[in-house]
Amino acid sequence: MDETATWPQQLQDVDRSDDGLRAWVAERIHRLDADGRRSADTHLVALDLPAGWDIQVYLKDESTHASGSLKHRLARSLFLFALVGGQLRPGMPVIEASSGSTAVSEAHVARMLDIPFIAVIPRGTSTRKIALIESAGGRCHVVESAEEMSREAQRLAEELGGLFLDQFSHAERATDWRGNNSIAVSALSQLELEPHPVPRWIVVGAGTGGTSATFGRYLRYRRLPTSLCVADVENSAFFDGWVQGDPTVVTDRGSRIEGIGRPRVEPSFVPGVVDRMIRVPDAASVAAARYLSERLGRRVGASTGTNLMAVAQLVAQMRERGETGSVLTLLCDSGDRYTDTYFDDDWVAAQGWEPAPWREAIERMLPLGEH
After folding, report:
1. What average pLDDT does the chain have?
2. What is the per-residue pLDDT for 371?
C-alpha cells in the first residue's frame, strides 16, 4: 500500500539541503580544530611576591597565541559560531570593525580558512597596526572616525554579500564558556597543583565583555567561591553602566588603552556575573605595564597594566584583612606592538599622562621579585 496516499492533503515540502555547503563548513571546522590541537595551551606565569604574604599572583599569558593576543580565542570562536550557525558560506568576505588585536587575529584565522577578510579601521590608525593586519592576510578599509566603523562594516557586508562578524554583539554567545576553547577551563585547571588552587579573585578587562562573561559564568557553573573583578579604564562606559545599573550609559570619547574600554556598554558585557569593578587611570595602566615589563624581561601591553593595577589594589586589601590566597589575571598581548606609543616617553607625555607617581605606588603595593 502507498503510505503517502493516506495523507488528507499534500504536505508543503521544501528541501534546501546542500551537500557541497555542508562539506565546505565541515572542512573549515576541521581546520579550526586542527589549529587548536597544534597550539599548546598558553602559559600560567607565577609572579614572585614576598613569601611571607602567602599570596600568589598568576598571569595567563595570552600573548603566546599564533596571532599574538587574547583575541585569538575570540577570533576562532566567532568564526566557529558563524560556521555552525549557517551564516558563513563559500566566497563570502568577512568584515570586522577593529583596528587592533581583534582584526589581526581575525585576519589570521580567515587566511587559515581561505576566507577574504576586511578590517574597517579609522583614519589615523598606526602604520604598524595596518602592517600587522595586512601581513596576517587581511585588507583594510578606512573610515574617517571610530564612530563610523560598525555602521560602515555593516554597510560593506551588505554591499559585498559578506558577513559582519560584530565582535561586540557576539563575543559572549560565541564562546563556549563550559568547555571548547574556554580560557576559564584552561586557567583553573592550570592552578590545580598551586598552593591556592581556587583563586580568591580573577581580574580581567572588558573590551567586548566576552572574557568577563566567560569567567563569570564558569565560576557560577562550577559553584566556586572565586570573585570576578573587571578592571576598566578612562573614557569607558562599562564602569558607570555597571555601578548605575544602566546599560544605556555612553561616553563622549573612546578608550586610549587599546583592547579594553568602550564608549558604550556593549551587548556582550554581562553585568550580573561581575562582583566588583575598579576604574584604573590611563597613566596607571602605562606605569604598571612598564613596571611588569621590566620584571618579566619582555614588554607587555597597557591593557595588561590595567589588570595589574587592579590586582595590586586587591592584594593590598587582602593583606590589610590578613587574607591569603591567589589572584589570577591575564597578560593580554605583547608590548612590542606599542613601541611607538605606551613605551615612547614623548608620546606618553603628549597624552598628558604622568606615570611616575603610579609607578612608585605599584612598586610599594606589589613588590615583584622582592623577598
Report:
1. 93
2. 39
pLDDT over 90 at 162, yes or no? yes
Residues 99 and 50 in one domain: no
Segment 141-158, tens digit of pLDDT = 999 988 888 999 999 999
Owning domain of residue 360: 40-69+177-365
CB 58 within 8 A of CB 191: yes
C-alpha grid cell, residue 150: 560598525
Considering only CA atoms, give the Rg of the chain.
22
Smallest Cα–Cα separation from 362: which of 294, 299, 276, 277?
294
> DSSP assignment, residue 164?
E
Asked if 56 and 102 sit in the same domain, the reply is no
Give me the CATH number covering residue 301.
Answer: 3.40.50.1100
Spatial contact of 226 and 253, defined as CB atoms under 8 Å apart: no
Co-location of 167 and 258 in the same domain: no
Residue 327: strand pairing partners: 57, 201
| Integer Cα distance of 262 and 237 in angstroms | 6
18, burial (CB in 10 Å: exposed 0-12, middle 13-18, buried 19+): exposed
Residue 309 in contact with residue 231, Cβ under 8 Å?
yes
Number of separate domains in the chain: 2
Q: Which amino acid is at 103?
A: A
CB within 8 A of 113, min separation 6: which ones? 28, 31, 32, 79
119 phi, psi to nearest 5 deg: -100, 125
pTM attached to this predicted model: 0.90
